[in-house]
Amino acid sequence: xxxxxxxxxxxxxxxxxxxxxxxxxxxxxxxxxxxxxxxxxxxxxxxxxxxxxxxxxxxxxxxxxxxxxxxxxxxxxxxxxxxxxxxxxxxxxxxxxxxxxxxxxxxxxxxxxxxxxxxxxxxxxxxxxxxxxxxxxxxx
Length: 140
Known about the structure:
140 residues; alpha+beta; globular
């Protein structure tokens, strides 16, 4: 099995610090499906599976030293489920900043479990990369 590129994020909730892995291909595929270049997104909203905070993360192009707690790209051999959830709209009229929310998901989760999980996410001060407040998504 060949290693695949992943984004390794650290939850920004200081009380948590959970590591979050998302495959690069999932984020690039989401852009392609919407008619954009694979590298269209410069940032993503990421849901922490542990504390449920949703935060904006810049999509790193390469990584610092392995012992750093900075978001980075890594090569891993994994077989884990992931899920794209929804595009997000900035609360500022006419803001065209592209942003989507992604969350680690278990393939065995039912639709009801996913909805219940989304409902408890914490969206405090979630802002688009341009700095505008993003209201909690109504799409599930």
